[in-house]
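Odorant receptor 46a-like isoform X1 structure dump, as promised
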Amino acid sequence: MPSTEEDYIENEYYTHNRRLFRLIGLWEYQRSSKKLIYVCFVNLIIIISLFEQIYAIFMSEKKLSLYTKLLEIILPTIGVVSCYYNLISNAAIMKKIFYRINYDWNELANKRELIILKNYATLSRKCTIAMIISFYVYAGFVIFTPFLCIIRYLLGSISYTELVLPISIDFFMKNHLTYYFGFWHQCIMIIIIRWKINERFKENRNNCHCNSENINLSEENEWIVDVIKFYKTVIEFVDLIKLFYEATNMLEAFLALVIIMILSTNISNTEGLTKLSYVIGSMSVIFAYFYFGQKLIDHSNNVFLTM
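structure tokens r here:
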């Protein structure tokens, strides 16, 4: 049965992902006119943000501290732009990823396989909720800092005001949402392959008292072919995820390291919370790429050892 829009949209485990992608116009099933409006709006925000920062560079005094402060904003913005345009340019690949996930949900009829799938889908949903909460915490830090400066300015303790708008991490995390739930789906499929193999050998051990004449060789052959095909589709899905992110993951990790080094050079009391949130976010990006990549390798090795 072919996949339909409602099949995937109504899946309770990916509701938050769907809403976030729709918010920035990257949900493949929404109408083209609405998608165009969302994409144009986000591009307008990015262009205004970049223009403002470039203008600030040319108009500012030639001081190292000012350049450092501008880089604190420009580098995350570059990460935002690279992630967002990676999503737009690879829309066809993203659509294949969504279709593959929906196809697996429709094809897995075994109750035990669906339980494995639902457990990891629940974990993916928790990761999405954690990212949403972290964004609001980040926004709170960023908003609190300039408001604290305004209060201090009104009280006369400082002679300047500063306002930083919390726009960067909101769009930055959308790229990683695709990565996280796509990664978990890869792990689910690999675990199901391992379960299929183990269950088959358990059945054979339980039926070992039967005569060899009763063994259905055609059924065994069909099972082997099914496992190989299933494993092949999982590898193809892994290749899709790799193709989707190979252009930006190294850039993001590099920018994260540079941001950490810049932020460590100059930290004031009023900016401490904001810079701390940038450091934590940057470290999370680096950790996620290495941890999830290693996790996927471990699952693949377990399947190889089981076979």
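The CA atoms of residues 249 and 289 lie 8 Å apart.
lmk if u need the other ones
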